[in-house]
Design goal:
Layout lengths: L1 H24 L6 H9 L1 H33 L5 H17 L2 H30 L14
Helix pairs in contact: 2-3, 3-4
Amino acid sequence: MLISYLVAGTLIIVVMWALGEMAAANPNSGAFSVYAEKAMGRTAGSTVGWLWWLQLVVVIAAEALGAAGLLFSVWPVIPVWALALVFMVAFTAINLAGVRNFGEFEFWFAILKVAAIVAFLVIGAALLFGWLPGVASPASQT
């Protein structure tokens, strides 16, 4: 699994490097579709643009449903569709806010993600060393 992460990470670095080079060589406004249009024509640029939009729409819906499914396991009283709707409204509100507000949201969400990782590490260490009351350490069972 570590090798697959290394290979995927290397590919992502190469792709991002290529995108950076294309952006430096062609500083136009637009997204990936501008590069595809310049290299392969208007049809390719339009296709890439629409596929990018479709991917964003599908990913946002999948994230809302995934988050709703996770929260449904915590609060089974609230239906999944209502939780997904709440997430979609929140995502839309964040995206309709200005760039400065989006940067602020991104900052706090990044802190939240780091805090969650640290909390999981602390809980894992407490479990491993037997610091949790009433829970036997998995290391002592071998």
